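Nucleoside-diphosphate-sugar pyrophosphorylase fused to phosphomannomutase
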Amino acid sequence: MGGYVVKAVIMAGGRGTRLRPLTCHVPKPIVPIMNKPVMAYSIEWLKHHGITDIAVTVQYLSDEIIEYFGDGRRFGVHLHYFEETTPLGTAGSVKHAQSFLDDTFVVISADILTTIHLQQAINFHFSKQALVTVLMHHEATPLSYGGIVTDRNGKVIHFVEKPKWNEVCSDLVNTGIYICDPAIFNYMPEHPPYDFSQHIFPHLIQQEYPIYGYEADGYWSDIGVIEQYHQTHVDLLNQRLIPSHYEEIAHQVWIGERVNIAQGVKLEGPLLIGDDVCIDEHATIGPYTIVGARSVISKHASLKRSIVWDDVYIDAYSELRGAIVANDVYIGKKNEIFDYAVIGAKCKLKNKVKVQHAAKIWPNKTIAEKTKVKGSIVWGEQRPNVLFRQNGISMRAHVDAHPMFITQLASAYNSLHEKGSHILIGFDDHPFSTALGSLFAQCLHMYGMFTNVYEGGYLPAFRYIISHKQYRGGVFITVNEHDEVIIDIHDEHGFPIDRTMERTIEQRMEHEHHMSAMQMGEAMKQKENDEMYIQALRQAISFSSSERWKVVVASSPLLKYIIERTLLSFAIEVVWTKDRDDEHIRELIEQEQAQFAIVFDHSGERFRMFDGQGITLTKEEMISLHVLTSLLFSETKKVAVPPWAPSALHTLAERLYGDIVYVKDTRRDFLLAHHHEPFHFYFDGLYACVQLLHLLAIERCSLRTIVSSIPTIHLSCRDVHCPWDERAAVMRKLLEESYDKHVDFTDGVKVYHEDGAWTLILPKVDEPTLTIYSQATNAQKAKEYTKYYIKKIRQYQNV
């Protein structure tokens, strides 16, 4: 069953912020690919498949787009423009053109370049009688795209926009190309902004409307970031997808009209040289280089893997290696410009300038002679380009966490808040944390924000202070035992910021967007301390006993103050040590006859526990105690647990007339699930310690006795290595073999087996690793399920 589509809409309103400084004064649809505006490729692709009646939605620098493309006549199509006064979102933008889109139509973004066979996708759309068909493509690292899971018939059953690694379930991603029935407008609200991927599609999938995914062959590139912009040129040269008017004068060497090449010039393809270019004697143009029209390459200059736009002058002996240079730039003698460095339009670089890897120079700048231009943050090549990890920002002290990084982070963080906002800055007593925290605060003052300082070093107290005072957020900086700087950013509720805020900061960091305030902020004179938290905790737990309680505590010296102050207020004797060695802890428990021991991490949020016999409590036992104390000592009847939590916890919760709720294994999801409670067993070692002693006082027994009374748990857990660029494909293949089983996507992929057992495949955010959890009726069966999936994962990596 086939059909015909005669109309399309090209979304061309975006600002192209991730391509700055290239798009500071050039709309993204006009950014050149192989010396031709990127939107021209979309127009030609649609025309090739018989679609010539095209709507174009515009907003940012709309006049330039309309002036360049006109009515479309010179491209052999008819263009109809729909201008937005404010951003409407992707779906809102298409809704704006509803009057034109009166039959089945294609949607494509102006920054997409593809050779996908559109008619085959259209035939698929009509055969499925779909409301929307999303064209999908395989992507090894899908973090920057919308991840898609379909059933065996192609119906979309799960969609995650820009997932973290622990949310990746497939290597199939949303290409941004859709085939839509006009009935789609019935499901769009009247008042934008709203997006297809974030709003419309999730709603339609939830309501089980016919949304289908078509797995497309052919080339596809979403030119959203500098790296992909560069890679697209490499791809097109490799595939010989060269604009038609260029002549191949030697193997893989294409030139335009009126090109002047002097004697002794070395040309090594694949490369492309535009019209009216002049290349002086003994210059070298190496592989994967693009030179725009009217540019001049002087004698002995050398270009490799570089993209040079129109009207650029490169003086003698300069070297470009993987650089991108916008229009009307002058590059002086003996300059060196390295990989992914970007030079904005109308810049002037004097002699002997060195532009480092990934540096960016904004338009209209003059760079003095012998200047070394250092760029913004460069992330490691072995992991995805993501700043935030599982627990905030983590980097090496003195290496990644340098003053320039902190100033850029403060600038990006500033964009989340209004001027005049009050922000709490916390840090531990490590000199590096103190210096970085002070610098961060001073940067915020430059942006008109006010700061206060918390020096207690106890993260749960820091969160409590934010949520119970008028702070708009907080930044907590510590250095752990591995000499890593940990930067935790919190919202006004004291929760770790959500992924949307994380992405905003990451994007601002890339774009180096800085704007200081007319009026300075300042630091508040009265610093915050632990007393507010200690008093609140004391009031929240009405615990007294005639027993003499003793607890072994291991922590940093800084945390000793709040730990002893809090526990002594409950008449609990503290045996403190800074030595976290397990054997030392066990010796102290036996020597002091302590009820148990608790070992705090550097911030006091994470902790390990030993019972009175010196046995370390497992993570399953800890989550069970979390459920037990939450239902006993709080008003809640629903307790959040991670997706790997044993099903036996349902039985435990039912005994106490409650239930468990599975949430993603992140601090934010846990804290949100218990947002009505000021303290949290799972992320507050002091609170957990006092509540456990409260439990022991009521039950009049040991911690080991209580743990032994918890329903039997048969849980197997193992890690398996899986390279970053293979994880998405592996997850998809695991899903494909589970079509006939019940699958849960709360966090990772949880497959329920016929015998009541289950297996959870949970990708780690920070490592190229998949964690496999299996629960079964006995330990042996759980191990067998885990081994089965590990074998499959290793097998799929070699396919």
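thats it. The chain has five domains: 7-222, 242-373, 394-525, 532-709, 715-797. DSSP finds 20 helices and 52 strands in the chain. bye
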